[in-house]
Protein backbone atom coordinates (compact mmCIF):
# COMPACT_ATOMS: atom_id res chain seq x y z
CA UNK A 1 0.00 0.00 0.00
CA UNK A 2 1.57 3.23 -1.13
CA UNK A 3 1.46 6.39 0.91
CA UNK A 4 2.04 10.05 0.02
CA UNK A 5 4.78 11.52 2.06
CA UNK A 6 4.13 14.99 3.56
CA UNK A 7 6.63 17.64 2.40
CA UNK A 8 9.35 18.32 4.87
CA UNK A 9 9.09 21.52 6.88
CA UNK A 10 10.77 24.38 4.98
CA UNK A 11 10.51 22.60 1.64
CA UNK A 12 9.44 24.77 -1.30
CA UNK A 13 6.35 23.36 -3.00
CA UNK A 14 5.28 24.24 -6.56
CA UNK A 15 2.29 26.17 -5.18
CA UNK A 16 4.53 28.20 -2.88
CA UNK A 17 6.91 28.92 -5.74
CA UNK A 18 4.00 30.11 -7.87
CA UNK A 19 2.80 32.41 -5.12
CA UNK A 20 6.27 33.88 -4.65
CA UNK A 21 6.57 34.40 -8.39
CA UNK A 22 3.24 36.27 -8.43
CA UNK A 23 4.34 38.47 -5.53
CA UNK A 24 7.64 39.22 -7.28
CA UNK A 25 5.88 40.15 -10.52
CA UNK A 26 3.43 42.35 -8.60
CA UNK A 27 6.31 44.04 -6.78
CA UNK A 28 8.09 44.72 -10.06
CA UNK A 29 5.00 46.43 -11.46
CA UNK A 30 4.18 48.33 -8.26
CA UNK A 31 7.73 49.47 -7.48
CA UNK A 32 7.88 52.31 -10.09
CA UNK A 33 4.57 53.66 -8.84
CA UNK A 34 5.78 53.45 -5.22
CA UNK A 35 8.99 55.27 -6.13
CA UNK A 36 7.07 58.03 -7.87
CA UNK A 37 4.61 58.25 -4.98
CA UNK A 38 7.44 58.52 -2.52
CA UNK A 39 9.34 61.10 -4.56
CA UNK A 40 6.36 63.27 -5.53
CA UNK A 41 4.08 62.91 -2.51
CA UNK A 42 5.63 61.34 0.58
CA UNK A 43 8.98 63.15 0.51
CA UNK A 44 7.46 66.65 -0.05
CA UNK A 45 5.01 66.05 2.81
CA UNK A 46 7.76 64.97 5.22
CA UNK A 47 10.04 67.81 4.06
CA UNK A 48 7.26 70.42 4.46
CA UNK A 49 6.43 69.22 7.97
CA UNK A 50 10.08 69.46 8.95
CA UNK A 51 10.61 72.80 7.20
CA UNK A 52 7.65 74.31 9.05
CA UNK A 53 9.66 74.19 12.30
CA UNK A 54 12.45 76.42 10.93
CA UNK A 55 12.69 80.13 10.23
CA UNK A 56 12.61 81.86 6.84
CA UNK A 57 16.25 81.08 6.11
CA UNK A 58 15.87 77.43 7.15
CA UNK A 59 18.88 77.64 9.47
CA UNK A 60 17.26 78.24 12.85
CA UNK A 61 14.84 75.89 14.59
CA UNK A 62 11.86 77.91 15.83
CA UNK A 63 9.54 75.13 16.97
CA UNK A 64 5.85 76.01 16.69
CA UNK A 65 6.49 79.74 16.13
CA UNK A 66 5.41 79.53 12.49
CA UNK A 67 2.10 77.98 13.52
CA UNK A 68 1.40 80.64 16.13
CA UNK A 69 2.43 83.38 13.67
CA UNK A 70 0.11 81.86 11.09
CA UNK A 71 -2.92 82.51 13.29
CA UNK A 72 -1.76 86.02 14.22
CA UNK A 73 -1.23 87.21 10.64
CA UNK A 74 -4.30 89.19 9.42
CA UNK A 75 -3.70 88.14 5.80
CA UNK A 76 -3.64 84.45 6.77
CA UNK A 77 -6.77 84.83 8.89
CA UNK A 78 -8.51 86.43 5.91
CA UNK A 79 -7.36 83.53 3.71
CA UNK A 80 -8.78 81.05 6.26
CA UNK A 81 -12.07 83.00 6.28
CA UNK A 82 -12.25 82.96 2.48
CA UNK A 83 -11.43 79.25 2.37
CA UNK A 84 -14.28 78.65 4.83
CA UNK A 85 -16.64 80.59 2.54
CA UNK A 86 -15.49 78.46 -0.40
CA UNK A 87 -16.01 75.19 1.50
CA UNK A 88 -19.46 76.20 2.75
CA UNK A 89 -20.82 77.79 -0.44
CA UNK A 90 -19.26 76.21 -3.54
CA UNK A 91 -19.84 72.46 -2.86
CA UNK A 92 -23.41 73.09 -1.70
CA UNK A 93 -24.27 75.13 -4.79
CA UNK A 94 -22.55 72.71 -7.14
CA UNK A 95 -24.20 69.64 -5.64
CA UNK A 96 -27.60 71.34 -5.71
CA UNK A 97 -27.18 72.56 -9.29
CA UNK A 98 -25.87 69.18 -10.40
CA UNK A 99 -28.84 67.42 -8.82
CA UNK A 100 -31.43 69.76 -10.34
CA UNK A 101 -29.85 69.62 -13.80
CA UNK A 102 -29.46 65.84 -13.66
CA UNK A 103 -33.17 65.45 -12.86
CA UNK A 104 -34.22 67.95 -15.53
CA UNK A 105 -32.13 66.34 -18.25
CA UNK A 106 -34.20 63.18 -17.84
CA UNK A 107 -37.27 65.17 -18.86
CA UNK A 108 -35.96 66.75 -22.05
CA UNK A 109 -35.00 65.63 -25.50
CA UNK A 110 -31.39 65.93 -26.59
CA UNK A 111 -30.29 65.22 -23.01
CA UNK A 112 -26.90 63.96 -24.19
CA UNK A 113 -26.18 67.15 -26.11
CA UNK A 114 -27.27 69.23 -23.12
CA UNK A 115 -24.92 67.31 -20.80
CA UNK A 116 -22.10 67.67 -23.30
CA UNK A 117 -22.50 71.45 -23.42
CA UNK A 118 -22.49 71.71 -19.62
CA UNK A 119 -19.51 69.39 -19.31
CA UNK A 120 -17.42 71.25 -21.92
CA UNK A 121 -15.96 73.79 -19.42
CA UNK A 122 -14.19 70.87 -17.72
CA UNK A 123 -12.00 70.69 -20.84
CA UNK A 124 -10.88 74.30 -20.29
CA UNK A 125 -7.82 74.77 -18.09
CA UNK A 126 -8.17 76.86 -14.94
CA UNK A 127 -5.65 79.29 -16.45
CA UNK A 128 -7.79 79.85 -19.55
CA UNK A 129 -10.99 80.01 -17.49
CA UNK A 130 -9.40 82.58 -15.19
CA UNK A 131 -8.41 84.78 -18.14
CA UNK A 132 -11.90 84.46 -19.64
CA UNK A 133 -13.62 85.53 -16.44
CA UNK A 134 -11.06 88.23 -15.66
CA UNK A 135 -12.08 89.87 -18.94
CA UNK A 136 -15.78 89.11 -18.47
CA UNK A 137 -15.76 90.78 -15.02
CA UNK A 138 -14.13 94.02 -16.23
CA UNK A 139 -16.12 96.99 -14.94
CA UNK A 140 -15.85 98.95 -18.19
CA UNK A 141 -18.98 97.91 -20.15
CA UNK A 142 -16.99 98.31 -23.36
CA UNK A 143 -14.72 95.43 -22.26
CA UNK A 144 -16.58 93.37 -19.66
CA UNK A 145 -19.41 91.35 -21.19
CA UNK A 146 -21.19 90.83 -17.85
CA UNK A 147 -21.29 94.54 -17.06
CA UNK A 148 -22.31 95.26 -20.66
CA UNK A 149 -25.39 93.10 -20.05
CA UNK A 150 -26.01 94.67 -16.62
CA UNK A 151 -25.72 98.20 -18.02
CA UNK A 152 -28.00 97.28 -20.92
CA UNK A 153 -30.71 96.02 -18.58
CA UNK A 154 -30.28 99.01 -16.25
CA UNK A 155 -30.53 101.53 -19.07
CA UNK A 156 -33.67 99.82 -20.36
CA UNK A 157 -35.50 100.77 -17.16
CA UNK A 158 -33.65 103.93 -16.15
CA UNK A 159 -32.71 106.84 -18.39
CA UNK A 160 -29.03 107.73 -18.47
CA UNK A 161 -27.80 111.28 -17.95
CA UNK A 162 -27.70 113.13 -21.30
CA UNK A 163 -24.62 115.30 -20.70
CA UNK A 164 -22.39 113.90 -17.92
CA UNK A 165 -19.38 116.08 -18.85
CA UNK A 166 -21.20 119.36 -19.42
CA UNK A 167 -20.18 122.37 -17.33
CA UNK A 168 -20.85 126.07 -17.23
CA UNK A 169 -18.45 128.83 -18.20
CA UNK A 170 -17.38 130.26 -14.84
CA UNK A 171 -19.85 132.84 -13.58
CA UNK A 172 -21.29 133.92 -16.93
CA UNK A 173 -24.89 132.69 -17.03
CA UNK A 174 -24.91 129.91 -14.45
CA UNK A 175 -23.77 129.35 -10.89
CA UNK A 176 -22.73 125.94 -9.52
CA UNK A 177 -25.35 124.59 -7.10
CA UNK A 178 -24.21 121.29 -5.62
CA UNK A 179 -23.99 118.85 -8.53
CA UNK A 180 -26.32 120.98 -10.66
CA UNK A 181 -26.52 124.60 -11.80
CA UNK A 182 -28.85 127.57 -11.34
CA UNK A 183 -29.29 130.82 -13.22
CA UNK A 184 -27.04 133.64 -12.01
CA UNK A 185 -29.90 136.13 -11.78
CA UNK A 186 -33.48 135.82 -10.63
CA UNK A 187 -36.18 136.07 -13.30
CA UNK A 188 -39.94 136.18 -13.61
CA UNK A 189 -42.77 135.89 -16.15
CA UNK A 190 -41.93 137.81 -19.30
CA UNK A 191 -38.18 137.22 -18.94
CA UNK A 192 -35.81 135.17 -21.09
CA UNK A 193 -32.98 133.21 -19.46
CA UNK A 194 -30.48 131.56 -21.77
CA UNK A 195 -28.14 128.98 -20.20
CA UNK A 196 -24.87 128.15 -21.93
CA UNK A 197 -22.75 125.05 -21.33
CA UNK A 198 -19.39 123.80 -22.53
CA UNK A 199 -17.48 120.53 -22.08
CA UNK A 200 -19.50 118.49 -24.58
CA UNK A 201 -17.64 117.58 -27.79
CA UNK A 202 -19.83 118.47 -30.80
CA UNK A 203 -19.50 114.87 -32.01
CA UNK A 204 -21.18 113.63 -28.80
CA UNK A 205 -24.23 115.87 -29.14
CA UNK A 206 -27.53 114.07 -29.84
CA UNK A 207 -28.30 113.67 -33.53
CA UNK A 208 -31.57 115.59 -33.19
CA UNK A 209 -29.84 118.74 -31.86
CA UNK A 210 -30.72 121.88 -33.88
CA UNK A 211 -29.32 125.42 -33.92
CA UNK A 212 -30.49 127.47 -30.95
CA UNK A 213 -30.19 130.98 -32.46
CA UNK A 214 -33.82 131.28 -33.63
CA UNK A 215 -35.22 130.04 -30.31
CA UNK A 216 -32.98 132.49 -28.44
CA UNK A 217 -34.48 135.40 -30.37
CA UNK A 218 -38.07 134.51 -29.42
CA UNK A 219 -39.73 136.87 -26.95
CA UNK A 220 -41.36 135.57 -23.78
CA UNK A 221 -45.08 136.23 -23.18
CA UNK A 222 -46.39 138.15 -20.18
CA UNK A 223 -47.00 135.01 -18.10
CA UNK A 224 -44.15 133.00 -19.61
CA UNK A 225 -40.57 132.38 -18.51
CA UNK A 226 -38.54 130.98 -21.37
CA UNK A 227 -35.03 130.58 -22.78
CA UNK A 228 -32.65 128.10 -24.37
CA UNK A 229 -30.02 125.73 -23.07
CA UNK A 230 -27.26 125.60 -25.65
CA UNK A 231 -23.71 124.43 -26.25
CA UNK A 232 -21.72 127.64 -26.02
CA UNK A 233 -19.12 126.52 -28.53
CA UNK A 234 -18.82 127.27 -32.22
CA UNK A 235 -17.33 124.43 -34.30
CA UNK A 236 -14.28 125.67 -36.17
CA UNK A 237 -13.74 128.58 -33.78
CA UNK A 238 -15.18 132.06 -33.59
CA UNK A 239 -18.37 133.07 -31.84
CA UNK A 240 -18.84 135.10 -28.67
CA UNK A 241 -18.84 133.49 -25.23
CA UNK A 242 -22.17 133.85 -23.46
CA UNK A 243 -24.09 134.62 -26.64
CA UNK A 244 -26.06 132.24 -28.85
CA UNK A 245 -24.26 132.24 -32.21
CA UNK A 246 -25.72 131.01 -35.47
CA UNK A 247 -23.71 127.78 -35.61
CA UNK A 248 -24.27 126.80 -31.97
CA UNK A 249 -26.76 124.01 -31.25
CA UNK A 250 -29.28 123.67 -28.50
CA UNK A 251 -28.99 120.84 -25.97
CA UNK A 252 -32.14 118.69 -26.30
CA UNK A 253 -33.38 116.56 -23.42
CA UNK A 254 -32.11 118.81 -20.61
CA UNK A 255 -34.36 118.98 -17.56
CA UNK A 256 -35.00 122.55 -16.40
CA UNK A 257 -36.89 123.67 -13.27
CA UNK A 258 -38.41 126.94 -12.04
CA UNK A 259 -37.76 127.30 -8.30
CA UNK A 260 -39.38 129.76 -5.91
CA UNK A 261 -38.56 130.02 -2.19
CA UNK A 262 -36.64 126.76 -2.38
CA UNK A 263 -39.53 124.79 -3.91
CA UNK A 264 -39.79 123.56 -7.51
CA UNK A 265 -42.99 124.98 -8.96
CA UNK A 266 -42.55 123.85 -12.60
CA UNK A 267 -40.33 121.52 -14.62
CA UNK A 268 -39.85 120.89 -18.30
CA UNK A 269 -37.47 119.36 -20.84
CA UNK A 270 -35.69 121.24 -23.60
CA UNK A 271 -36.63 120.64 -27.23
CA UNK A 272 -34.36 119.82 -30.16
CA UNK A 273 -33.24 123.46 -30.37
CA UNK A 274 -32.65 123.64 -26.59
CA UNK A 275 -35.72 125.81 -25.98
CA UNK A 276 -37.72 125.55 -22.75
CA UNK A 277 -40.78 127.45 -21.52
CA UNK A 278 -42.77 127.78 -18.27
CA UNK A 279 -46.30 129.12 -18.78
CA UNK A 280 -48.91 130.22 -16.29
CA UNK A 281 -46.45 131.22 -13.56
CA UNK A 282 -47.67 133.54 -10.81
CA UNK A 283 -46.04 136.97 -10.73
CA UNK A 284 -42.86 137.04 -8.71
CA UNK A 285 -39.19 136.12 -8.72
CA UNK A 286 -37.96 132.68 -9.79
CA UNK A 287 -34.64 130.90 -10.15
CA UNK A 288 -34.07 128.75 -13.21
CA UNK A 289 -32.23 125.55 -12.25
CA UNK A 290 -30.64 122.74 -14.25
CA UNK A 291 -30.79 119.74 -11.84
CA UNK A 292 -27.84 117.46 -11.10
CA UNK A 293 -29.59 114.53 -12.83
CA UNK A 294 -28.53 116.06 -16.16
CA UNK A 295 -24.85 115.62 -15.27
CA UNK A 296 -24.72 112.36 -13.34
CA UNK A 297 -22.09 109.93 -14.59
CA UNK A 298 -23.58 107.08 -16.65
CA UNK A 299 -24.16 103.79 -14.88
CA UNK A 300 -21.00 101.71 -15.12
CA UNK A 301 -22.28 98.39 -13.83
CA UNK A 302 -21.17 96.32 -10.85
CA UNK A 303 -17.64 96.28 -9.45
CA UNK A 304 -17.25 92.50 -9.70
CA UNK A 305 -13.51 92.72 -9.12
CA UNK A 306 -13.81 95.03 -6.11
CA UNK A 307 -13.09 93.94 -2.51
CA UNK A 308 -16.75 93.27 -1.68
CA UNK A 309 -17.59 90.93 -4.58
CA UNK A 310 -14.29 89.39 -5.63
CA UNK A 311 -14.78 86.09 -3.75
CA UNK A 312 -18.38 85.53 -4.98
CA UNK A 313 -17.23 86.43 -8.51
CA UNK A 314 -14.47 83.80 -8.44
CA UNK A 315 -16.87 81.22 -6.99
CA UNK A 316 -19.16 81.99 -9.95
CA UNK A 317 -16.32 81.15 -12.35
CA UNK A 318 -15.67 77.94 -10.41
CA UNK A 319 -19.36 76.97 -10.71
CA UNK A 320 -19.19 77.46 -14.48
CA UNK A 321 -16.35 74.94 -14.68
CA UNK A 322 -17.54 72.25 -12.26
CA UNK A 323 -21.35 72.20 -12.62
CA UNK A 324 -21.11 69.75 -15.53
CA UNK A 325 -18.91 67.43 -13.48
CA UNK A 326 -21.43 67.29 -10.63
CA UNK A 327 -24.35 66.85 -13.05
CA UNK A 328 -22.75 63.93 -14.91
CA UNK A 329 -21.87 62.03 -11.72
CA UNK A 330 -25.31 62.55 -10.22
CA UNK A 331 -26.97 61.64 -13.52
CA UNK A 332 -25.07 58.34 -13.49
CA UNK A 333 -26.44 57.61 -10.02
CA UNK A 334 -29.90 58.68 -11.10
CA UNK A 335 -29.83 56.27 -14.03
CA UNK A 336 -29.20 53.41 -11.60
CA UNK A 337 -32.28 54.12 -9.44
CA UNK A 338 -35.00 51.42 -9.46
CA UNK A 339 -37.66 52.74 -11.82
CA UNK A 340 -40.35 50.54 -10.31
CA UNK A 341 -40.07 52.49 -7.05
CA UNK A 342 -40.63 55.80 -8.83
CA UNK A 343 -43.56 54.38 -10.87
CA UNK A 344 -45.14 52.94 -7.73
CA UNK A 345 -45.01 56.36 -6.10
CA UNK A 346 -46.67 57.94 -9.14
CA UNK A 347 -49.41 55.32 -9.09
CA UNK A 348 -50.01 56.09 -5.41
CA UNK A 349 -50.68 59.73 -6.33
CA UNK A 350 -47.37 61.38 -5.47
CA UNK A 351 -46.51 64.42 -7.56
CA UNK A 352 -43.08 64.99 -9.10
CA UNK A 353 -41.87 67.25 -6.30
CA UNK A 354 -42.84 64.70 -3.64
CA UNK A 355 -41.09 61.95 -5.60
CA UNK A 356 -37.99 64.13 -5.89
CA UNK A 357 -37.91 65.06 -2.20
CA UNK A 358 -38.92 61.79 -0.59
CA UNK A 359 -37.61 59.14 -2.99
CA UNK A 360 -35.03 60.48 -5.46
CA UNK A 361 -32.93 62.48 -2.99
CA UNK A 362 -32.81 59.76 -0.27
CA UNK A 363 -31.86 57.09 -2.81
CA UNK A 364 -29.18 59.38 -4.26
CA UNK A 365 -27.75 60.25 -0.83
CA UNK A 366 -24.58 58.09 -1.25
CA UNK A 367 -23.83 59.63 -4.65
CA UNK A 368 -24.56 63.16 -3.42
CA UNK A 369 -22.25 62.62 -0.45
CA UNK A 370 -19.38 61.45 -2.65
CA UNK A 371 -19.85 64.40 -5.03
CA UNK A 372 -20.05 66.86 -2.13
CA UNK A 373 -16.94 65.57 -0.35
CA UNK A 374 -14.98 65.42 -3.63
CA UNK A 375 -15.84 69.07 -4.27
CA UNK A 376 -14.89 70.00 -0.70
CA UNK A 377 -11.44 68.51 -1.27
CA UNK A 378 -11.18 70.35 -4.57
CA UNK A 379 -12.16 73.80 -3.30
CA UNK A 380 -9.69 73.57 -0.43
CA UNK A 381 -6.92 73.39 -3.01
CA UNK A 382 -8.23 76.06 -5.41
CA UNK A 383 -5.42 78.34 -6.55
CA UNK A 384 -5.42 79.20 -10.26
CA UNK A 385 -8.74 81.02 -10.45
CA UNK A 386 -8.06 83.13 -7.37
CA UNK A 387 -4.58 84.08 -8.48
CA UNK A 388 -5.59 84.98 -12.05
CA UNK A 389 -8.99 86.64 -11.61
CA UNK A 390 -8.26 88.80 -8.56
CA UNK A 391 -6.45 92.06 -9.52
CA UNK A 392 -3.37 93.01 -7.53
CA UNK A 393 -5.06 95.63 -5.29
CA UNK A 394 -7.70 93.15 -4.10
CA UNK A 395 -5.57 90.00 -4.15
CA UNK A 396 -5.45 89.90 -0.36
CA UNK A 397 -9.25 90.19 -0.16
CA UNK A 398 -9.61 87.12 -2.41
CA UNK A 399 -6.80 84.97 -1.02
CA UNK A 400 -7.44 81.41 0.09
CA UNK A 401 -5.01 79.11 1.88
CA UNK A 402 -3.37 77.83 -1.31
CA UNK A 403 -2.70 81.31 -2.72
CA UNK A 404 -1.57 82.62 0.67
CA UNK A 405 0.84 79.69 0.97
CA UNK A 406 2.34 80.53 -2.45
CA UNK A 407 2.55 84.27 -1.77
CA UNK A 408 4.22 83.76 1.62
CA UNK A 409 6.71 81.26 0.21
CA UNK A 410 7.51 82.56 -3.28
CA UNK A 411 5.35 85.57 -4.15
CA UNK A 412 7.39 88.18 -2.30
CA UNK A 413 7.24 86.90 1.28
CA UNK A 414 10.20 84.52 0.88
CA UNK A 415 9.33 82.89 4.20
CA UNK A 416 9.23 79.20 3.36
CA UNK A 417 8.99 78.28 7.02
CA UNK A 418 5.64 80.03 7.37
CA UNK A 419 4.64 78.80 3.90
CA UNK A 420 5.38 75.20 4.93
CA UNK A 421 3.23 75.68 8.05
CA UNK A 422 0.37 76.82 5.80
CA UNK A 423 0.92 73.77 3.59
CA UNK A 424 0.72 71.49 6.64
CA UNK A 425 -2.51 73.23 7.73
CA UNK A 426 -3.98 72.72 4.26
CA UNK A 427 -2.98 69.05 4.32
CA UNK A 428 -4.52 68.60 7.76
CA UNK A 429 -7.81 70.01 6.47
CA UNK A 430 -7.86 67.91 3.29
CA UNK A 431 -6.87 64.52 4.75
CA UNK A 432 -10.07 63.93 6.82
CA UNK A 433 -12.23 64.55 3.75
CA UNK A 434 -10.06 62.18 1.71
CA UNK A 435 -10.31 59.45 4.37
CA UNK A 436 -14.08 59.90 4.50
CA UNK A 437 -14.34 59.56 0.72
CA UNK A 438 -12.14 56.44 0.64
CA UNK A 439 -14.28 54.78 3.30
CA UNK A 440 -17.41 55.62 1.35
CA UNK A 441 -15.94 53.97 -1.76
CA UNK A 442 -14.98 50.85 0.19
CA UNK A 443 -18.41 50.54 1.76
CA UNK A 444 -20.09 50.93 -1.64
CA UNK A 445 -17.90 48.14 -3.08
CA UNK A 446 -18.60 45.68 -0.25
Give the secondary structure arrangement, pairings included.
Elements: H1 14-51, H2 65-70, H3 74-105, H4 111-119, H5 126-136, H6 145-157, E1 167-168, E2 174-177, E3 180-183, E4 195-198, H7 213-217, E5 224-231, E6 255-260, E7 263-269, E8 275-279, E9 287-290, H8 310-335, H9 339-347, H10 352-363, H11 365-380, H12 384-389, H13 395-398, H14 401-409, H15 416-445
Parallel strand pairs: 4-5
Antiparallel strand pairs: 1-4, 2-3, 3-9, 5-8, 6-7, 6-9
Could you explain how this protein is built, in words?
The chain has 446 residues and is α+β, with helices and mostly antiparallel strands. The chain has 2 domains: 65-150 and 304-445, MetI-like fold (Orthogonal Bundle), CATH 1.10.3720; 167-294, Immunoglobulin-like (Sandwich), CATH 2.60.40. The chain is built from 15 helices and 9 strands. The longest helix is centred in the first third of the chain and has 38 residues, at 14-51. It is elongated.
The N- and C-terminal alpha carbons lie at a distance of 49 Å
The overall number of domains is 2
Q: What composes the largest sheet?
A: 5 strands, antiparallel
Please write the CATH class name of the largest domain. Mainly Alpha
Q: Could you give the order of strands across the largest sheet? A: 2-3-9-6-7
- Sum up the overall morphology in one term: elongated
Subunit arrangement of the protein: single chain
Radius of gyration equals 37 Å
Write out the CATH superfamily name of the largest domain: MetI-like
- How much of the polypeptide forms β-strand, as a percent range? 5-15%
Unreliable runs = none
- CATH architecture classification of the largest domain: Orthogonal Bundle
Structural class from helices and strands?
alpha+beta
Count of DSSP E strands?
9
How would you state the average pLDDT, rounded?
86
The topology string of helices and strands comes to: HHHHHHEEEEHEEEEEHHHHHHHH
CATH topology of the largest domain: MetI-like fold
Given the structure, what is the number of helices?
15
